[in-house]
Amino acid sequence: MSLTKVLFTQEGVIEHLISHCPLIEDLNIGHCYVYNHGHLVKSLFLHGLQKLKKVDLRIIQQVHIDSPNLENLSYEHLVMDAAFKLNFNHCTNLICLRLKSIVIAEKWLLKLLSNKFPFLESLELCDCSLPDERINIISAQLKVLKLYQYSNLKEVNINVPNLKSLLYEGYEKPVISFMRSSNQLQASVITGVDYWRLYSLRDFIRNIPKKILASLSLFVIRPILGDPRKIPAMQVFSNTPPVAS
C-alpha cells in the first residue's frame, strides 16, 4: 500500500484504513494532510499487522510501530531540529534501518544498536544532526553502515567487528577510527575537496586503513573566476582500483 500526498478528513482516518488491510506487507506513507486542520498528518500508530515486512514513512511527527515481523524500516522527518517520536521497540526482527533528517543523540544510538535488535544488519543515517561533533558506532551484528552528508561531523569511532561494508558521503572529512573491524571490510568514500586544499585529502585518507579502502570518489571544486564565493563548478573522478582486504 502506498499513500503519498493524500488528503484525509481528520486525524485517525489513515489508521482506520490500514486496520482493514491486515495482510499488508509493504507500506509507504508520506506528505499526507488533514483537511479540517490544514496540516500534515502528525501521528501514526501501526499495530496488528502481522505480515508487515517493510515500512517507509516520511514527514510524520509521532510514529509508533508494533509489528514483530517488520524487517525494513525507513523514517524521514521534515525539519531536522524539530521534535519527533519514533517508537519501534517491538520490531525485534528488524534487519535494515534508514533514518533521515532527525537529531540523533549518542545515548539513543547506542541503545538502538544494543541487543534489543539482534538481527539488525544494515544502518543508514542521512542528513542527521548530532548534539556534538562525534558519533560512536558500537554493534556486534551490524554488517552495513552508510553515513551521508553530515555538516558538523568531526569524528567517527567504529567498533563493529562484523562490519563488511562502509559508505561515507559528505563534504566534511572527519577522523574515522576503527576500534574493531572485520578483515573483509571494504570502505567507500565520496567527498568534495576545494581546488586549493587538495592537500587536506591526504590526511583524511590516512585515517582509513589502505587495506579496506575499496573506492574513492572526489568532487574537485574550483572557484568561479571573479567570484569564488558563488557555487563552484565541479569535476569528478572516481573509482580507484579495489584493494584486496
Automatic annotation (TrEMBL):
InterPro entries (UniProt xref): At1g61320/At1g61330-like, LRR_At1g61320_AtMIF1, LRR_dom_sf
Residue span, At1g61320/AtMIF1 LRR domain: 87-184
Entry protein name: At1g61320/AtMIF1 LRR domain-containing protein
PANTHER family (alphabetical): F-BOX DOMAIN-CONTAINING PROTEIN, OS02G0105600 PROTEIN
Parts forming coiled coils: none
